[in-house]
Amino acid sequence: MRPLTLLASLPLMPLLLTACTAEDRDTAEPAAAVIRAETLVVAPEQIGETYTTTGTLVADDRVEIASRLMGYIRDIKVREGSQVKQGQLLLTIDPTEIEAQRAEAEARVSQARARGAEARADLERYKALFEQKLVAANTYTKAELEHQVAQEELRAALATLDRVKVQIQYADVRSPVDGVVVERRRRAGDLASPGATILTVENPSNIVLETYIREDQLRHVQPGDEVAVSVDAVGLRTTGVITRVVPSGDPATHSYLVKASLHALDGARSGMFARSEFTTGTKWTLLVPDAALVKRADLPGVYIVDRDGIVRFRMVRAGRHLDGRTEIIAGLDGGERIVLDADTPVRTGDRVEERPVPAAESRDLAPR
Fold this sequence. Notes:
Blueprint: H1 2-9, H2 12-27, E1 34-41, E2 44-59, E3 62-66, E4 71-76, E5 83-84, E6 89-93, H3 96-131, H4 137-169, E7 172-174, E8 179-184, E9 191-192, E10 197-202, E11 207-214, E12 226-231, E13 236-245, E14 255-262, E15 273-289, E16 294-296, E17 299-305, E18 311-315, E19 317-322, E20 325-330, E21 337-342, E22 351-354, H5 359-365
């Protein structure tokens, strides 16, 4: 029975071989095509080397409003978000205690004036008696001394009264700057003490960047230098000028505070997160147009054209984006010819036929 089974299966072999051959033809890769494309030779270029930090936008004109008097807050006329002008009344402190101090100071002035008048009268009387040689010289000298003491007491009482009058003016607390109330820490009826913050006022038109730099970057950053600033919350991309580099650093982090004024705000506000990019020198690197970059499995790469005009895909490591071009950190050595633009989709193994680049585009793609 075995020979019959083997003979019966032999006629099926040619059919199987025929089917496999047809399947191989169907799944085989298409033949390499000739494509027309623009190419570019990648050459090293010198660009600015940068140092990137994160920071915060703050109001450079920020004033904490406090009372100079001890007393209860009678009325607060503003709240968070209120626009205020310089000299505008913000709040009042109950002046009852300071009014009592003024009354006391005025009473002391009256007493000092009375004692002064009495001392002057005694001095004039003893002077006349001394000239008539009716009293001793030490008696006249004592009258002079008492008159001088009375005058000093009067001057001290008047100075105290003037100081109290000035303090009464502090019962009305006014804004020292134009701005916006951004914080209110006390309410009407709360006790205000000298130096304790009640309100905070900011000038929203004077927003600056505050960031910290490492100690090894301090020598590269100087007041007057430009810095690139980006604020993601409002899509702001602008530049600024470094206004201050605080020379004393944080001993815990070994970082130094840097402030920069911005050339544009475009909706940016105090408290927003920002990124800053400082130029610290120059370096040689490779830049390729963004149009030449392709992605495979989310990995960037370029199509390299070899000496025979055959295309090969090569993965690269991308860096910064600069005016429509991307820095290549790894993957290219310089001198490679890459595909910039093609009439049809590019595949590894295709042969490239050079397509002339228009003169205007040639100028745009030339190394800068």
